[in-house]
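debug: dumping io for the single-chain case to check the tokenizer round-trip. Nothing else runs in this session.
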Amino acid sequence: MNRLNWGLSGTESLHPKTPLHPQEACGPITDALDGTMALVDSSGNVQTQYTYEPFGRVSTNGPANSNSQKYTNREDDGTGQYYYRSRYYSPALQRFTGEDRIGLAGGINLYAYVDGDPVDFTDSFGESKDCGCGGSVVELWFRVSDVRAAQDWWNGFHNEQIQKGNWAAATGGDILNKLLTMSELAEVQSDGEVLGSDASTFRKVTAGLDLIRIGATWYFLLTGDEIVPKDPKTCRIAPLGNRTWTTNWARTKKWEKIGINQLPHYHRRIPHPSGKGTAWGGSIDWHRPWEKGF
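debug: decoded output
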């Protein structure tokens, strides 16, 4: 592992934007597996060096500091174990300390780390080995296919970029993590696993109902149909606009298509201050906030 990564981009810059500690103006130099090999100060002088055995046992040379990201860019929890998102890894034992959550489907050894080949592979999330090149197809697929691990990864990425002073990247990671949360894809994955397991009938029915709820939510959001929070006579929301043709039977007594509104809007009835009837301009039929009448 003789390839060095200077900072985040692999360029020649040795000037970190944000110190790891107010008194420690240090930035990382990383190796081919993205592990921290050294910390340099704002002048580019090496302050602390890290040397790793193949399975991650580390030797430190230099002053103490607050840096926790070491072997394969994972956090040392202070007890000698590294946090790999779904479970912890012990370089002393050369294995994970928690079982693989997919059980024997991941192999007969429930605690194995990268099938015994830590020089060529890493395991970013504690669930599947990936190439240590930092951008492999295997790693990308894993981030996409396991939503919960992807959320953990983007959350860790967000925190790492804040620590390193890369605010644009940190913001992007936070946005992607929030989008995954809003999509409820992690819940879909969990519900699907319950349905395919030996769980009780009650749990399977609950998971099935949850999938129906999430599917209905996606349908309304993607088709533009209006969501009714409580009372359709009081409030209706179309977060992506109306994307389906409607009829005008109430006004013309004819089944005819009257149009489509692609803009996000909501409907809200505003009662009259007296408590009787509807206020002027407060009809439930109006599109807000554009106040575009039918």
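debug: round-trip ok. The chain has six helices and 13 strands.
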